[in-house]
Fold these 3 entries.
Entry 1:
Amino acid sequence: MNYLKTTKSREIISILSKNAPNGLIDILSASKALMIDPKKVSIRLSALSKRGWVQRVRRGLYYILPLEAKPGQETMMDDPFILADQLFKEYYIGGWSAAEYWMLTDQIFNSVFIVTTENLRAKIISLFGYTFNIFRVASIDNTGLKKVWRKNIQIQISTPERMIADSLRNPSMCGGIRTLASIISEYDKKADKNYDILIEIVKKIGNGATWKRLGYIFEELKLNDHVSKVAEKEISSGIVKLDPSITSRGDFIKKWGMWANASLEYD
C-alpha cells in the first residue's frame, strides 16, 4: 500500500511519529514505516520540511513535530543529550557538560560539550534551541567513558575522572583552569572519589602538560599528596602554561616547569 498516494500530510506524520523514537527518524526507518522507496521518502520528507511539518536535523535525519504542533511552529526536543546521540556517530559528552552531569559544578553553561572524531566545519552547532560546542579529536580512547540511560537511549559520557584528565590536558574543555580547580575541589569532597583511577587515566591519555597541571593544582589546593607526588615523577622536560588560553606568562614555577599565569581561586 502506498501511503504517499492515499493519505494526507497529517496522517503521514502520524505514521512517522509512531516509528520515530524521541521524535527522530532517518530515511531508512521512514521508508520501512511508509513501505515505499527510500529515494521517494527523501523527496517527501524534504517537501514536508519545507511545509513545516518536520524539521531537518542533518542530512537523512528528521525530527517529526508533535501532532498537536502547528506546521512551521518552532519546537524544542526534551533532551539535548538524546539529540547529540543522533547528531554524532562517534562521540562522547565531556568537559563542562560531564561536570554538570556528575554535579561537580554549579556554574551554568549555555551549550553541550561534545567530543567527536567527525570532521565538522562548525565548532558550534545550534539546533532546536540547544547549542553544541564541538571539540574534534583524531580518535577516541574509551578509557574512562561510560554509557548512561536517557529515556530509551544510551548516551556515552566521560566519567568524573576522565573529564578531569581531559580538562587537565585541554583546560578549555571545562571553561578554563579556574573552573577546573573548582571541579577538582568538588571531586575531592565526593565519598566515591578514586584518585588511583584518575592517575591511571592520565597515564593512558595524558601528556607532559597534563601531569604538570595535575601536580601543581593538587599541591596548591593542598589535596591528596600522593597524586602530586606521582605527577612530579611523571613530568617531562619543557615549559607549559597553566592556562594556555591566557597570553600572559605569570610566575615561573621551576618545580613544575610551568608559567603559573592564572589564579586557582574561583569566585
Entry 2:
Amino acid sequence: MSRSSSSRILGVILAGLLGTAHAQEPLLVERQDRTSAPAIAYAPASPTCRGIALISPGAGGSEQGYRYLGETLSALGYLAVVMGHPESGRRALREHVRGTDLREGLADLITDPNAYRGRFMDIAAARQWARVRCAEGESLLVGHSMGAATVMMEAGARNRIGVRGNDAFDAYIALSPQGPGSIFPDDAWSRVRKPMLLLTGTRDTELGGASWESRTEPFRNMPPGCAWLGVIDGASHMNLAGRGASRATEATIARTIDAFLAAVRRGDCRPPGRLEGLALTTK
C-alpha cells in the first residue's frame, strides 16, 4: 500500500468526522418475504465501481452507523451498503431487554435463530440491489460483533444457531469476531477458506467477560490460505463500531482493509511490511 493511498483514505475518514458531506443514499430493499429492510448506500468515489461491499451492524445497530466503514470502502471504489437488520436492530434489542438487563437481552438476541434468518434475507436483498448498480467486480461482506458472527456463518463456520450461509462472497471482513461459546462450538471455523480479515483490539472484551484474546480463536482454527488477524493496541469494542474516541482506530482499520484487499486482488495475500498501531498475523 502506498503512502499516498493511506493519506487519501485517512483524509476521507477525517473529513467524515468533521462533518463533510458524502454521497449517501437512504433506501429500502425488498426481501424475499416481501417485507422491506432499511439501508444506506455509499457510492463509489472512483468513476469505475470496483465491486460491492455489504456491511452488517452489531446487535442493536442500524444503517445509520458504521459511517467510517461506508466511507472507507467508498474511497476504495466500492459501492458500500450499510444494512439495517429489523430482527436485530434497536427495536428488537429493546424487546429482548424488556424485563431483564442489557447484557442478558444482548445474549438472548445474538443467539436468536430468527434474527440471523432475517439478516440473511437482508443480505440477499441488499446484494441484489447493489449488483444492479455495480454488476462487475468483487463482492465483500463486512460485519462487526453480531455482524461478525453473521459474516462467519455466511463464510461457512459451523454454529449452534442452526443457520447455514451460502459462502457467496469473494472475501470477508470480521470486526470483533466471537470465539467458542454460545454462538460457535470449538473447531467451528475449519471450513472457512475464502480470504478473511479479522480485527480486534486489546480492550475488545467479549459480552460474557472473556478476554479479547478469545476473539483470536477463529483465526487459529482456520486452515492456511488467506487469513489475516489484526490486533489494534488499545481499541475497545465500541471503537471498532466507530463510536467513542475512535479516530485512530478507524484510521488503522481503514489502512488494514486497504492493504488486505490489495493483497487479495494480487492473489498472494502477502501482508505489507508494517501497519502502524497494529499487530498483524497471517497464514
Entry 3:
Amino acid sequence: MDFFEQIAALRREGQPFALATVVARRAPVSAHLGDRAIVFADGRMQGFVGGACSQEIVRRQALDAIRTRQPRLVSIQPDAAASAGAADGHVTVQMTCASEGAIDVYVEPFVQPRRLIVVGSTPVAEVITRLARVMDYDVVRVVDPREQRDIEADAAALGVSVASIDALDNLVAEAASRGIEQAAVVASQGHYDEQALERILKHHVSYVGLVASRRRAATVFGVLGENGVEGIETIRNPAGLDLNAKTAADVAVSILAEIVQRRATTSRSAPAPGQHDVAVKDSTTATSLDPVCGMAVDVAGARHTAEIDGVRYYFCCARCRSRFLENPQHFLAAS
C-alpha cells in the first residue's frame, strides 16, 4: 500500500499513530531529507528515519507524542546536551552512536478526538454539547429511550451521536478498548443520574461530573454506595470550576473549563497505569537506562547487553556497550 494511502486508512479506522519525518540532516547520517516512518501505538515502526540509535529515539518520542497528543521537533545531535522535555515542542537528544552526524525529525501524532459523554435531555446538557463540539470533542448524548426522538434532529445537525441509557455500559467499554480518552457529564436532573453513574464508573473515564445540588448529590451517592459502586469519590460535584455560574451556559462553560484544567494537569505528569491519554502499549516497567548515554532501552528486545558482578546492563547500540566494557566503573559511578 502507498505510504499516504496507509496513513489515510489508519485515520479512517481511528487507529492512533505518529508520523515521523526527517526535516534536517548533517552528514554523515544514513537518513535523508523527507525520509518517513509510521510509529504505531504498540511501538511498531514502519519506514526509515535513520540508524539504530535514531530509530529508537524517534520511537520513544513518537509514543510520548501519541500519549500527550502534542507534536514535537526532535533534534538528535552528538554535540548537544539532552533537553529535559518537550514543553516548548522541541526536544534535543544526544547521539551516542558512532555516527557524528545529526538529524532533526518532526513527529506528528494522529489520534482520535477525545470523547465527551453528556447524559440527560436538559438545558445544561444541550449547551455543553454545543460548546464541546466547537472544542472538537466527539460528543455522545445519552438519554432515556423515550427522549431520543426529541433530540436526534438537533444532534444530527451538530454531528453528535445519540444513544440510549441502556447502551451506555457497552458504549463506554467499547471506546475504552480502543484507547479513546473519555469524559462524562451527568445532567439528567435526577431522572437517571444513578443509573448513568453506575455504568460509567465501571470503566476508566478521565473526568466524571454530576450536575446536581449538594443535597441531591448526597442522595445519589448514597444510592450508589448501597449498590456497591466503586469510584464514587472521583465524581465531581458541584461539577465545574467556581465561576459564580448562574445560567445554563455559565454552568456549561465552568464544567468544560474544569475538564480542560484536569486534562492539562494530567498531561504534565506521568500517567498512572490505566490513565493514558491514548492507549500506548509501551510499558515503562520493561525498560532499562543505558548506563552510557541514558537512553531507555526495551529489555525484552535489547540486542546489546553485558553482565557485571551478576547485574545485567542494557545498551542502545554496540558502541555504548563497548565504551561501557572499557571502563564499567566510570559509568556506574556516574550513575
